[in-house]
Amino acid sequence: MQEPEEKKIALELLETEQAYVNRLHLLDQVFYTELMKEAKNGKTVPEEVVKMIFSNISSIYQFHAKFFLPELQKRMENWSSHPRIGDMIQKLAPFLKMYGEYVKNFNKAVELITVWTEKSLPFQELIADIQKRKVCANLTLQHHMLEPVQRIPRYELLLKDYIQKLPPESPDRNDAEKALEMIFMVAKHSNTAIAEMERLQNLWEVYQRLGLEDDIVDPSNELIKEGPVQKISTRNNSTSEKYLFLFNNMLLYCVPKVIQVGAEFQVRLRIDMDGMKVQELNDMQFPHTFLVSGKQRTLELQAR
Asked: What radius of gyration, in Å, describes the C-alpha atoms of the chain?
C-alpha cells in the first residue's frame, strides 16, 4: 500500500521537529549552559551578556521538547486509527508567540557574539571548542541560532502542503486550516515586532544626529523623509546649505554643524504639520524651488 500523501508530510513534520529539538538542545543545554557556567566563574563574559545572547531559548526548548514533539509522536503512532494533526497544532500554536521575543533579539544577539569574541579570548575559545564537537556538524553558533528564526515559516509551508494533499472530505481539514491561520498570525506577530524594533532603532539614530533635543524625542514619531536643501536668501540672491527632516507631525529645518562632536545637525526651526502649506515656485534663476509656510515662519527652499 502506498502511504497517503498527507501522511508523508505529517511524517516530514515529525522528522524535522526531532532534528529541530536536537538543535534547540545544543543551543540551550550546551552553548547556553556552558557559557553561563564560565560566566558565573567570572572567566569569560558577564552573565547578563550570555542571557542577552540567548534570550528566551530555554522556554522555546522546553516547549518543543516536552510538548510539541511528544504530542506529534503520539499522533503519528496512532495515525492508522486517528489520522489528524490539525487540532493538536491548533491547541499549541498560541505558545509559538514566544518566538516574537527571540526573533526580535536575534540581530542584537549576533552583534554581541561578534563584539565579545573580539573582547574576550576565553569566550572566543569556549565557543570554538564547542563548535569543534561532532554535534555541531562544522557549523557556527550563529548558524545554529538562525534555526528558531526559520522554524515558524517552515511550519507554515508544511501545513500548507498538508492541507493541499488532504482529501476534500478529510475530518482534519477544518482544524488544519484553523491551525495554519494561527501560525500565519504568529509569523505576522514576529515580523511586526521586528519592524517596530527597526523603526525605533532608526528613529533613535535620527534623534542622536539632532542632539537629542527633549521636545523632539518622542517614540511615536515617524520619519518620512530627510535630505539636504538650499535656503534661498532673496536679499542677496544667494543660497546656503540646510537639511530637512520630515516627520509625520513636524518639519525640522536644520543646519549642518561644522564641528561634528555629538550631534550632526542643529535644529534651527520646527514647523508643525498642522496648518503647514507647501507651494511650488516657478523661478527661472533658481529651479526646483518651493515655499514652506507654517504658523512659525515661511522659508524659500531649493531642492537638488
From this structure: 28
Nearest in space to 9 (alpha carbons), one of 150, 151, 159, 154? 159
For the chain, the residue count is 304
- 281 in a domain, yes or no? yes
Boundary residue ending a domain (189, 212, 247): 189
* End-of-domain residue from the set 189, 209, 240: 189
Residues spanned by the domain of 12: 5-189
Instruction: Count Cβ atoms within 10 A of the Cβ of residue 35 and give its class: 0-12 exposed, 13-18 middle, 19 or more buried.
Output: buried
* Angle, CA of 288, 292 and 295, to the nearest 5°: 175
The total of structural domains in the chain comes to 2
Residue 1 binned pLDDT confidence (cut-offs 50, 70, 90): low
Q: Which residues are paired to 256 by β-bridges? A: 265
d(CA 233, CA 236): 6
For residue 238, what are the β-bridge partners? 233
- The neighbouring-strand residues paired with 292 are 278, 299
DSSP string of 79-91, one letter each residue: TTT----HHHHHH
Per-residue pLDDT reduced to its tens digit, 168-184:
899 999 999 999 999 99
Question: The domain that contains 235 carries what CATH number?
Answer: 2.30.29.30
Rounded CA gap, 249 and 157, in Å?
Answer: 41
The residues, ordered by sequence, that sit 6+ positions from 259 with a Cβ below 8 Å of its Cβ are none
